[in-house]
Specification:
The chain is an alpha/beta fold and 234 residues long. Helix content is 31%, strand content 21%. The chain contains eight helices and 13 strands. The strands form three sheets. Strands 4-1-5-6-13-12-11-8-9 form a nine-stranded mixed sheet, sandwiched between helices. The protein has a two-stranded antiparallel sheet with strand order 2-3. It has a two-stranded antiparallel ribbon with strand order 7-10. Helix 2 crosses helix 3. The longest helix is centred in the middle third of the chain and has 16 residues. The protein is globular and about 45 Å long. It starts with a strand and ends with a helix.
Length: 234
């Protein structure tokens, strides 16, 4: 039986000028029944077109901050480093993927770039822009839950996990501010931060703010998220 190929967006180390990958992304996808393939960091249109038509799904990973210019804002001092080539690659590849209705899963930065590319905005820095008692930037071990999220009962996430409350880990200083048109909120934290979204117009466009790749080894809910994505790509 053929396993689906999942293209995994690369992480980038600007100091070493190198691509790299967290094994957890790859292992979670493998365990769910897919063959993960780390993509090159490229903005070549022909290459991206072949990726969009050659892969069965795409995983948009965590990483550097999205450039605020993509959502019409000036960069705040608290905003982190952005990688222009990655922003451009994801912008082009996302549009190509939507055109062929490729299953898409976004994690951390992934939910942020999805929201931006669909017309929404971000908090550039939660600690300075939104006062909250929740720990959105937790310390290791990262598989340990940091706070709870409430899941909307009519959402795809509820159908996937079968629960209306989840204990999730958290490691981010940016988050969705204005939700993109067409997107629907699937889960929120107690402080109002949007923790998961979907876009019903597409076959599978799901994104979460937390890190199921860290927790899938000990958390059945995280396994279900990866499994649902792989099934959509099969």
């Amino acid at each position: 039986m053929r396993k689906p190929l999942i293209g995994v967006l690369p992480l980038y180390d600007e100091q070493k000028e190198s691509y790299w990958m967290l094994p957890a992304y790859m292992k979670a996808l493998e365990e769910a029944g897919a063959i993960p393939v780390m993509l090159p960091l490229t903005v070549d249109q022909a290459n991206l077109e072949q990726i969009a038509t050659g892969m069965d799904g795409l995983l948009f990973t965590g990483g550097h901050d999205v450039d605020p210019s993509l959502y019409g804002q000036e960069r705040l001092e608290q905003c982190g480093i952005s990688i222009h080539e990655r922003d451009e690659m994801e912008k082009k590849l996302f549009q190509l993927a939507l055109a062929v209705d490729l299953p898409l899963l976004g994690i951390c930065r992934g939910i942020q770039i999805f929201n931006v590319l669909l017309g929404g905005t971000l908090y550039q820095d939660l600690p300075s822009q939104l006062k909250s008692q929740l720990k959105h930037i937790q310390k290791p071990p990262y598989a340990t839950p940091s706070h709870e999220v409430e899941v909307q009962r009519k959402s795809s996430l509820y159908r996937i996990v079968g629960k209306n409350r989840l204990a999730v880990n958290s490691y981010h200083h940016q988050a969705i501010d204005i939700l993109a048109p067409g997107c629907k909120v699937m889960a929120t934290a107690k402080d109002g931060i949007i923790e998961a979204i979907e876009h019903p117009a597409y076959r599978y466009l799901v994104a979460v703010q937390w890190h199921p790749e860290f927790s899938y080894v000990v958390d059945n809910v995280s396994k279900k998220i990866f499994k649902s994505f792989v099934e959509a790509a099969s």
